[in-house]
Amino acid sequence: MNVRRHHISGIALAAATALGLGTLSACSTDSAAAGNTDKFDVVASFYPMQYLAEQIGGDHVNVTTLTEPGQEPHDLELSTKQTAELGEADAVLYLKTLQPAVDEAVSQSEVKTKIDAASLTKLEDHGDVEHEHGAEEEHAEEEEEHALDPHIWLDPVKYREVAEGVAKAFEKADPDHAADYKKNASALTKKLDTLDTAYEDGLKNSATKVFFTNHAAFGYLAERYGLTQEAISGLDPESEPSPARIKELQTEAKADGVTTVFYETLVSDKTAKTLASDAGLKTDVLDPLEGITDKSKGDDYFQVMESNLSALKTALGAK
């Protein structure tokens, strides 16, 4: 998942979507799984949005996702059937800027309740982290300087903010079940608070604060817990780093006591393993949680986040 150098204007960021306009629409067609049930039908754009909808909605929602497990979210192209399902849903929950195909489909659909997770918290620009040095990277840095980082779900505090906003939108759009949505959201936010505390305590005292990743998915997490993320490939996991960047990372690994290069489950681990081999470092998985597959170290958001914490503690030499 990446922003692949999209230039996001302040206007796009400020355009918070209308939450819950009107009552539920009764969908009577049988052509779409997303819109023909007697429940509150929610279409989620990808796993972190799907998880929120399921946890907050509980028994009252029917959740379908546009991104299949194992599919790289950014590259998603919607089928005609998916676009039709979207139009028949009662609500859509998505993260603007992450999936251009979804953004376009949502803007053209007549779904009454459009919930943009990006409008429920503050997106930041982590472009200066990915390409801090090196003349060869200057052009890439210029292109990325306006690219807002969408990986908000990897920060439990920001994910909690989104969860609270989603709950309010559900309550407004489906008032008959508002009390349950409120109760479910409260249980979820408590778990996110516990996760935040576990990260804060677990990463407080460590031998190093620097970690290497395949691409820059962990900017919010690093910022939240006082760490420094150094990404091999910046915001785009498919871009090839320059020899100068690889050499720079090898030097930094020695200077900062870096032990591990992290890669992820949905993109190639080739570059990470090459760097690790050349620099005498270990490799491990740090999962950006774009989807749960049989390769995931856990069955849901919390299990994988706990696995990520364990991997970080080991790599950073947490005491």
Describe the structure.
The protein has helices at residues 10-14, 47-57, 80-88, 100-108, 127-130, 138-144, 156-173, 178-203, 219-224, 243-256, 270-279, 301-316; strands spanning 40-44, 61-65, 91-94, 113-116, 210-213, 228-231, 260-263, 282-285. By secondary structure, the chain is α/β, with parallel strands linked by helices. The strands form two sheets. It has a four-stranded parallel β-sheet, sandwiched between helices. It has a four-stranded parallel β-sheet with strand order 6-5-7-8, with helices on both faces. Strand 3, helix 4 (100-108) and strand 4 form a beta-alpha-beta unit. Helix 2 (47-57) packs across helix 7, helix 7 packs antiparallel against helix 8 (178-203) and helix 8 (178-203) packs parallel to helix 12. The protein is globular and about 60 Å long. The two termini are 32 Å apart.
SSE blueprint and pairings:
Elements (H helix, E strand, L loop, with lengths): L9 H5 L25 E5 L2 H11 L3 E5 L14 H9 L2 E4 L5 H9 L4 E4 L10 H4 L7 H7 L11 H18 L4 H26 L6 E4 L5 H6 L3 E4 L11 H14 L3 E4 L6 H10 L2 E4 L15 H16 L3
Parallel strand pairs: 1-2, 1-3, 3-4, 5-6, 5-7, 7-8
Helix pairs in contact: 2-7, 7-8, 8-12
Short description:
This protein has 319 residues and is α/β, with parallel strands linked by helices.
